[in-house]
Amino acid sequence: MNPPISDQCMGNVFAALMANWPLEETINYKDFVEKLRELISLLNDDYVKKAFPNGWILRRMKNDVGRDDKKSSRRRIFHISGCCGLPFYEADFGWGKPNWVTFLQANNAGDNIFVNLIDTCDGKGVEAWVAMSKEEMLKFEQDSQVIAYASFNQIA
């Protein structure tokens, strides 16, 4: 950001990036990661100046989600949020530091996928809170590329 923000600064920082795929189209990991990298690279000073004048980002998100796709009348939303590196486990509001920090997660994702990333309490790993349809979750939990790096603890 320009001007730079202090490392000790924390507040309401939010940016929405949307990638659209027809619901019927299968997305492989390589294409998905390439699209995410492309979208993240767009987050720069120019984007922020254009996206946040007069606080209109929420209206824009609503319009982007509601817009009809020419190839498909249904949309799939992949929401990913990352809070890695933020010192949540150092916060003490008077009753001690937290043992575990979590996110409220959608329990009925439908066709959509929600992922929240946060550091583990020991700072040596990352928790990924994932919500998707039951059918997709079964496939996800059996994917060899996912199993190689993850352990599963189903909450709901």
Number of strands: 3
Overall pLDDT confidence: 75
Cα gyration radius (Å): 18 Å
Uncertain stretches: none
Sheet with most strands: strand arrangement: 1-2-3
Helix content, binned percent? 25-40%
Would you tell me which CATH topology of the largest domain applies?
Answer: Chloramphenicol Acetyltransferase
* CATH architecture classification name of the largest domain: 2-Layer Sandwich
Cα separation of the termini:
38 Å
Provide the number of structural domains. Answer: 2
- Measured by DSSP, the beta-strand proportion falls in 5-15%
**Helix/strand structural class:** alpha+beta
Output the helix-strand order. Answer: HHHEEEHH
Features:
156 residues, 2 domains, Chloramphenicol Acetyltransferase, 12% strand, alpha+beta, 3-stranded mixed sheet, 5 helices, globular
